Amino acid sequence: MPRRRCSLFYLLALLSVANIALALTAWESIHQTIHTYPLAIDSKDFALLSKVFTPDATANYTGDLSNLNGLPAIQTGLAASVATVYSQHLLGTTVIDIHSDRIDANSTTYFQASLFGNPYSIGSVVYLYGFYADTLEKGVEGWRISRRQLVFQGPGFVGNLSLVGG
């Protein structure tokens, strides 16, 4: 069987197709940003939040976490909110609306969070239900949340409220 010679052009075309296949769409990139959030909170790796929020982001989680302005305030506030508990945040339905300018987007993401006492014992858990309403911006480092509003659904907090100061 004769051996085929590959031209440089052919090899570059193959590399280009491979890179296109690996590139994420805007929707996938936004989804990845949003879904990095629970990994940061539950692992208590608050530096990872720099992959989620813009440096000047604002967040309103209600109560003591109502007016968080800037990434450092968000990191500090969220760290304090889970300092005495273990947590598991589950994100569900996510709807993403990418604006026509392709550099701004809005999203709504449903969540359920469980906060477990540290140390855990029977009955030392509180559950939270709601959604995040986010505004995102595309920057040099990718899509980041510039504004987050937590909206509780149903009863909000359910369970042993003493875990969250209730």
From TrEMBL:
Q: Which domain of life is it from?
A: Eukaryota
UniProt entry keywords in alphabetical sequence: Signal
> Do the record's keywords include Signal?
yes
The SnoaL-like domain covers 24-148
The record's annotation in InterPro entries points to: NTF2-like_dom_sf (IPR032710), SnoaL-like (IPR037401)
Using the record, list the residue span of the signal peptide; answer none if the entry has no such feature.
Answer: 1-23
Q: Which Gene3D superfamilies match?
A: 3.10.450.50
Q: Does the keyword Glycoprotein apply?
A: no
Q: What name appears for this protein in its UniProt entry?
A: SnoaL-like domain-containing protein
Q: What species is this protein from?
A: Imshaugia aleurites
